Each structure stands twice: as C-alpha cells, then as structure tokens.
Amino acid sequence: MITLYMLIERTPGLDQQDLEHWIDNDWVRPDQQAGQYLFREIDVARVRLIQDLRDDLEVNDAALPVVLSLLDEVYELRRRFRAFGRATCDLVPSTVQNDIADRVRQATSLIRSL
Amino acid sequence: MADPYKTLGLAADASAADIQRAYRKLAKKHHPDVNPGDATAEARFKEITGANAILSDPEKRAQFDRGEIDGEGQAQAPRPSYRDQADGPAGARYGRRGSASGGWDDDQFTDLFGSMFGAGRSGFGASTRGRDHRYSLQTSFLDAVNGATLRLDLPGDQVLDVRVPVGCESGQVLRLRGRGEIPTGGGERGDALIEIGVSPHPFFVRDGQTLRLSLPVSVSEAVLGARIQAPTPSGWVWLRIPPHSDSGSELRLRGRGVPTHGGLAAGDLLVTLRVMIGAPDAALDDFMTHWTPDTPRDPRHALEASL
C-alpha cells in the first residue's frame, strides 16, 4: 500500500488534481486511513488504466465513466464466470462437465452463425 | 527483430505526430485491459508499445535508425496490468456499483446463471420447449373479487379464455399451460403468462379478504335507525342501521367481503356510515335554531383534552 504522494512520484504523467478528481468520482477507490489515502496494487493499476484510456485511447472525460463501468461489468462477469467454472469443476462429475462444455460450444457456434 | 516502423505501419520518415497518431489508433484496438481474454490482442499490444517506446523517443529512434539497437529496443519496464488484478479477488473492489463490496448474493447468482439453468426454459441448449408468451389483462374490481372468465384477444385473430380466479389481486400472474410459443422443429409448447391488472371500484376498497364501503345515510336514518339496502360484491342486502348511529360508525357484514378461495375464509364487508344532511331545508334550519339538546356536549371535547 502506498500513499498519494508515493503514487504520484512513481507514476509519470499523473497530476494530483486529476487523481483527486478520479477519486471524487469513485473511479479510483483507495482505502482511507487517518485522513490519508492508501493505494493497493489494483488501485495503482487502475490509475494506469485510466491514464491509458485518456492519453492513448483518447477516451474523453464524458465517455470515461461509461467505459469504466462497462469494463467493471466485464471483469465482474469474468470473475463470476471463473468462480462458476471452478465450482463446476469441483462439484460436477467430469462426464457432465464434458456435456456442459459440448452444449456451450454448440450454443456459442449457433449464436455466431446467427 | 520486429521493425517498429512496420509494427506501427509507418514509413521511415514518419513525423512525431504520425507516430503518435498511429500508436493511438492501434492501442485503441489492442489494449489488453479493454480486450480481456484476447491473448493475441495482448501480444500485439506489447509489440505496439515496444515500437512506440523506441519511435516516440528521438534518441532511441536515432539509435534504431543507425542500427545500434534492434526492434526490441530496451525491454519495457513491466507495466502493472489492470487485467491481472481485476481478474483476481482484488477485482471485487471495482465490482458492479451497488453490489455490496463487489460480492454477490444468491439472488444475483441466480440472475446471472438462472437463464442458463432455468429448468429447461429458453436458455442455452434447451431448445425443445417453446417460449412463454406474456400478456396483460385488465379486469373490473368485481370480476377480480368474484372470479370470472374473460376473453383475451391475441394477435392474429386468436382468442384466449382466461379464468380469473376468485379473489384475484392486481399483479397476479396466471399461467395457461401450453398456450405459448409452438417451438419450430417440434417439442413442448410454451405457456401463456397473463398478468392481471385490477381497476379500482368507485365505492368498494379491498384490504386482503376484507372489503370496505362508505355508505351514505340520511339524518333521519342515522337518528331514528332504519332498514336500508346496501351493495355487496354478490348483490344488494338488507342492513339494519341502529338508532343514534354517528357518522363514521362501522357496521360489519360477516362473510360479505371477498368470497372464500385458496384456503382463505370469506372476508367481511365493513360499512362505514356517512351522514348526509342533504339539500338546504327551511324546516330543518328552523328546528335547529330552536332546538336545545337534552345533554349539551361539545363534539370536539376529545380534541381539546388531547391538546
């Protein structure tokens, strides 16, 4: 966990005002302790992501929250799907797993052919 | 190794602006954090950022042009990958807004996967059963209380006779098995799901099995008592108004509310009297002017006592 100043020092092109703006908008969600922000690894990566979106992918301020919430949704689904897959592997006999895999393959190829 | 100019699709004399434009265009397409799960995008993005790192730095670009460094240039410092973080448990921090700490409860889990395992309904793989068709049907208050068979017009000149059960409530959904979609390629027909809307009644109000009715009575009926007719959902009944009934007093007609259904006993009809003084009447005015009650009492004394 690092503080706001360490983060700014370590991250080229990161402006404190921008960062505070992102935190105020809930786009970056650091922990707060004794009146100061503490950033975990994912928060640092999130800051880099927003920088990439803004600087390299030219996502403007108006579109940024839309893009972020879609990304959050995608990752949420990926995490759930992964958890679901793990649960399936743990709980379901392997023959059924193969049947499920076949069905999913069929269904996705069907969707693609539509 | 790879030629950074080729990677970015540039000529050797490209300007700094060209390089930036080409890099941004490709980065938009291949950024791994916005293409999670696409391994080619990730590899491609590495090439692109590598090429950009060389060409966007005039010194490195000159070194490459002179053949002092190859297309790999300096290895990029490993960039913190949002995807690696977001795919792991740490990602819950940026989970869907509104879900407590990004976790999920059983309901959301069923929401998410229910359509895949929804008892053979219109989900992936389960193609042998037709889809359910949804309709809505507006009924009158009394039809909903007493039950009725109503005709629902469907698209394509079809009709559906819907038996509205006794005591039906607004929002209740009736299922007519086998009246939904006929699946192409054969299989079981879907169901028709009919959501019932109940229109309000001008003077009955429903409260579970109980019905309420506000019944107007005349001054003389209230003072002297009377036998009058009152409406109930099953028709008019005789009702005895006791003498000296105040406005607002309540009479209970047992079993005259919502009829018995689904294991529920029949409800009562609660009749609240509303004394109407009627049109202006000189004789009544005259009587009131000269009338002194036997036991004068302020009708608002209870209000005063509570202040």
Look at the helices and sheets of chain B and give the structural class: alpha+beta
| CATH C-level of chain A | Mainly Alpha
Strand order of the largest sheet of chain A: 1-3-2
The CATH topology of chain A is Multidrug-efflux Transporter Regulator, Chain: A, Domain 2
Number of strands of chain A: 3
The CATH topology of the largest domain in chain B corresponds to Helix Hairpins
Intertermini distance of chain A: 48 Å
In the CATH hierarchy, what is the architecture of the largest domain in chain B at level 2? Orthogonal Bundle
In DSSP terms (H or I, runs of 4 or more residues), the helix count of chain A works out at 5
Q: Strand order, main sheet of chain B: write it out.
A: 6-7-11-10
Mean pLDDT score of chain A:
87
The total beta strand count of chain B reads 11
* Helix fraction of chain B by DSSP (H/I, runs of at least 4): 25-40%
How is this structure best described in words?
The complex is a heterodimer of chains A (114) and B (307). Chain A is 70% helix and 8% strand. Chain A is mainly α and 114 residues long. In chain A, a hairpin with a 2-residue loop joins strand 2 and strand 3. Chain B has 10 helices and 11 strands. In chain B, the strands form 4 sheets. In chain B, strands 6-7-11-10 form a 4-stranded mixed sheet. Chain B has helices spanning 4-8, 16-30, 39-55, 58-65, 82-87, 106-117, 141-146, 219-224, 282-290, 301-306, and strands spanning 133-139, 148-154, 158-164, 173-176, 192-198, 204-207, 210-218, 226-232, 235-241, 250-253, 269-276. Helices cover 29% and strands 23% of the residues of chain B. Chain B is elongated and about 120 Å long. The chains are: A mainly alpha (114), B alpha+beta (307). The interface between A and B is medium-sized, with 34 and 34 residues.
